[in-house]
TrEMBL record:
It comes from Chanos chanos. It is a multi-pass membrane protein. The chain crosses the membrane at residues 20-40, 76-97, 128-153, 185-209. It is found in: Cell membrane. InterPro entries: Connexin, Connexin_CCC, Connexin_N, Connexin_N_sf. This is Gap junction beta-4 protein-like. Pfam families: Connexin (PF00029). One of its GO terms (cellular component) is connexin complex. One of its GO terms (biological process) is cell-cell signaling. Its main location: membrane.
Amino acid sequence: MNWAFLQGLLSGVNKYSTAFGRIWLSVVFVFRLMVFLVAAEKVWGDEQKDFECNTKEPGCTNVCYDHFFPVSYTRLWALQLIFVTCPSLLVVLHVSYREERERKHTLKYGEGCPRLYADTGKKRGGLWWTYFFSLLFKLSVDAVFIFLVFYIYEAKFFPLLVKCTEAPCPNVVDCYIVRPTEKRIFMVFMVVTSFICILLTLFEIFYLIGKRCYECCTSNRHKQENHLALVTLSAIKQNEDNLKEPVLLRKVEDHNPSDDANSAPAYSVAIS
């Protein structure tokens, strides 16, 4: 495994995630991926070879093993980890698409042109919906795989003894699993971590929706306040214009040219 590539990939996912998303990523990487890589192969590497039944009937052991373990636990976990981490990569790809589009726009119209995105990594518009649907997909994947574990294995996590009656076994055959207690502990651990990831994803969904609703309400309130301020200023200006207009009309009406003509001789006579 190329750890440098994995580190760069995880840092990119961590950069565009919320606080709950960073915690989810840490849980997946430390408690699921690392446990799977370090311990899973050693614990389950010999499960079919050491699955023994108290019969020498040809094919009976293989049929019983296939009946109790139709899907290997390690392969089931590997599929779960692949499907649950792919949506986070889609978010990184969407951000890369935005950055490339912004770069081409700048090259075409110059450095001083208006930007297409105020922040290419900010969850707005299509990126918000990509992030939201990625959370729903991760939640669905974890829930489906937990259901498959309980449905396929019937919640019997590695019992000490399993009884098989499948053909071509001649009768009820007792079969034994190697290290059942150790495998049961790891199985319970992986199921519990999956439940924790589901809870973290639910918290992140509620946080994302709540934050978006709060921002929309705040934006609408600011718009209403600005609109109210504009209406108030317009009303004040109109009132001032209405107050000035009667004063000017009164001045014009009070001014009579005949009065000026009559008053002029009186002034001249007084001087003479």
